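Q: Can I see a sequence and its folded structure?
A: Here is a first one.
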Amino acid sequence: MWSAVAPAPSALPPLAADRDLTVANWSEVVEHFREGLVVCDADGVVQHVSPVAERLIPEVTPGEPLAAAGPAPLRGDGPAEFAHHGRRLRVRPVALSHRRRCWYVDDVTESFSRADAVLAERARSAFLAVVGEKLGNPLHPDRAAAAVVRLAVPTAADVAVLVLAPRSGRARWWRAVRADDRPPVVDSGMLPATALPAAIEAGLAGAEPHELDWLVEQAAEAGWLPGLDAAGATARVVPLPGREAPAGALLVARRADRWYDEADVDLVRAFAARAGAALTTAMLYRDQAEVADTLQASLLPVEPASATGVQWGTAYRPAQAGLRIGGDFYGSHRLADGGSVFFLGDVSGKGVEAAVFTGQLRQCLQALHRVETRPGRLLKLLNDALLETTQAHGQGRFATMVLGVARPHRDGGLTLTLAGGGHLPPLVLRESGEVEVVPLRGMLIGVVPDPRIGEETVHLAAGETCLFYSDGVTEARGGRRGDEQFGAERLLHAVTGCHRMPAPALAERIEQVTCDWLAHGDHDDIAVLALRATGPAGRSPRHLHAVPDPETERSRELSA
């Protein structure tokens, strides 16, 4: 490279032409060059050293052989680049007349540093881009923490330790250790909050400890620096930003020959900022998932309470399987006189909103059954409560429902007093194998102030079953074309011959037959409640674990 006032090498009379000018004639010209010049005669003895060359390679003096005094790269025959006296030099030889040689010496320290800085910045940017990509996926704090320490090694550390903010008095930590050319080894552990090193406590409080020896000593005492000599290591601690307080603290350590300069610390801080954002997101997702799981658990149908002389069978499949909740519900409550109030219903809509409405219904029933046990009156009270709730919230939801009271007899039978609110009629499976449809009618619940409620009484002998179901069974669309409803007739056929089945097996069979009809297609919420009279002392029949063959049953009856 040449300065603006310097002529190109080919324009230099003594260097490009064969005119024999003395050094004195052109020294005044070359002293303005940005490059230094060293001229040697045919024997390699230095004849001239320009002022720039004197500053860059002071050991080269006129009258001395260049090979004896100059740096090793000047003894070769080609261009070279080397470090010398804290500078970066680039040299290139040019042949002159009479076997003389001129060495151009260029100080490229600044350009070399700029190039290094650009490369380093590109490497840092690439590293942070990878960090952003890798930390964008984990939505679980444990997986996010493990990813953080794994990414920190070896770019930012030979050993990286992440400590999350303590919960319930204990702090979880993750560590990644450099393992030569293999992926870093990651492990984890738990510490009481009172046993955390002081530097980590400071990091969790949002500070950035800078007592380097002290940091290494504490990390070594905690057993977090395997493979590193505490006397020959350097470390830093940075907090990981969170929502209101740091999400954790990151300890990075490596050998002292890779000291953390300001650029390295800035990189660790930028890395920690991204790690903190990922961890905060993961912890927020965890907290929301815990709340959602708790709410889901409270909205799931509750298994009926055990009652004397009653065997319950239930099946439930929400329309949106991922939510686990829907708009169908069932349950029961024991009464003080030994009976049970039970119910099965279906609210309008699907998903979370429908499930919340079912929760309101169940809560109302839980309170109202303590003051009213007559099914018809209880259903009207429930209707009034729902109307008040829906009008207050501007909702337009309604429900269909069957509500009943079961009271056991001494002979093992049951009397069911049923009240209907616009729901599908129950089925009764008699001991003889006959299937009866209970003509229970009524109006929707939650629509008008004084609905007409249907009422029926059903007597079950020991071993007989009453089956309740939602419209997700009869309105299931499937079949060969995929759009044909399952219907009441197919349901009657499906339960025929199942009169000796235990209640749980019967409910499971209805669900399975319906799902087979659907063939994995979309469907409404499906709910089934089976109530079976168990007989004296609550004994269930000892046989019948499967659907009997009608021909076999007919043969048995004839032989009897």
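Q: Show me another, different protein.
A: A second, unrelated one:
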Amino acid sequence: MLTALSIKNYALIEDININLQPGFTTITGETGAGKSIMLGALGLLLGNRADYGAIRNADKKCVIEGSFNISNYKLKDFFSAEDLDYESTTIIRREILASGKSRAFVNDTPVNLSSLNALGAYLIDIHSQHETLSLGNIDYQFQVIDTIAKNEGVTIEYKQHLKEYRKLQKRAVDLKEEQAQAAKEYDYNLFLLNELQEAKLKPGMQEELEERYEELNNVEELTEQLSAALINVTQEEIGSLETLKEVRTNLAKISTFSANYGSMHERVQSVIIELDDIAEEIAGALEKVEANPEELEATNTKLQLIYNLQKKHAAGSIEELQEIQEELQKKVLASENAESDLSDLNKAIADKETELKKVADKLHANRKKIIPPFILKAEETLAALGMPNARLKINLEKQKIFLPNGQDQLYWYLAANKGGEFKEMKKAASGGELSRIMLAVKSILAAQSNLPTIIFDEIDTGVSGDIAQKMGEILQRMGNNMQVIAITHLPQIAGKGNSHFKIFKEDTADVTTTKIKQLQIPDRVEELAMMLGGNNISESARAHAKELLSE
């Protein structure tokens, strides 16, 4: 419940602070005194968009703060999901800066408006005159029935199954489209795949073939150069080995004279050993060089095949061709396994349909069970509100398809007068009748569920006299189960409040300011008497006011 509200620098409000109690609270005031301003401030506290023009003094920031006792609301999971610190007394603060920027805090932790809006839905239900029209809205009608039927958990389960079901259906449509396209491309993809598979591609294959092709294509040049190199290394008169051996002999004779000469001798010996190994490798390579026209042609053919495949697939390497081969393999397998994949998917859809139907049946059964007692209670309440002949009819029709709220179509009908025909709710009731029906619905909801604080903004529109008295009694009873705040112009309702606040304007110098104060018994008598008889309060009006407060 809302325990305290502070509004600073907002519209006509300079600074107000009020403490609120459990039960039924009434707020009165002349038209234009600022009741709508207070509701606007509460709306900002619950996540509505801020209007910079609402700042009273542009040199200061606007601050709206509310304290809420949420110990009975079971909101720990919500706070955890939003990464907020849970406090049984939670403080929400909204700031509109002079720059036009807006900030929001929950227990001093900054939050965005979507989180604030989600939290606000658990805390306060502001029921404006416009909200009464929602009685004709199908979603609201489902919400009422499901709240009374305690279908919240079942509804969440159904929506989750429905989401998964829609996802599977979309996958089936996409798969059929993919398969149709794959079927068109299957033969071509299979041809390309076979072509790549026949090439038997391996990493490094292209480099090896290119190297071998160069060897086979240059046999004469290789023979000539290797022979010359071998002669230059090994020939007795001019060969490098013979020359180095003479150098080795020269250095051997002086190697003992110093460490430097000894080192030179060892290094020449190492070069001789290395050059001797090179000579052997050259000789071996020369023996292997031979013309092989058949291998040359085969190598060239293999290379041309690789080059052609790279050109066809716009690939720069064997590795890229192998990746393309793997992708083609997937496409071909997808086409070949299409029927199996679709069959598996259709089975998953059928299984999900079974789950959905089971949950939808539970929703239907719960709704069907509570509709008769709900109608009976609503008609009893309407009779007390001056609609003794009103009859309510709710049709719950099971459909074969899955809808957002189950497999049900829901229709609310009203026959407002004796002998009247049933018509759609929004077409059958006047504004005053809709107000009374909405109050009847809200009172039933309040008795059967843990609703948040509810604020009625002139729910009494279109009613007066004894009906207003009955309406006040219902609001008072609702206050036994929850915090109810009613903004009203009717003394019959204002007198039923456990506490009573008055909103009024006060002129000081050139400034008009909206203020609010809690009325005690003497002031309540005067306020109710003025609501009954105008500014010229008579003793009979005061007496009537006292009667209203004593009832």
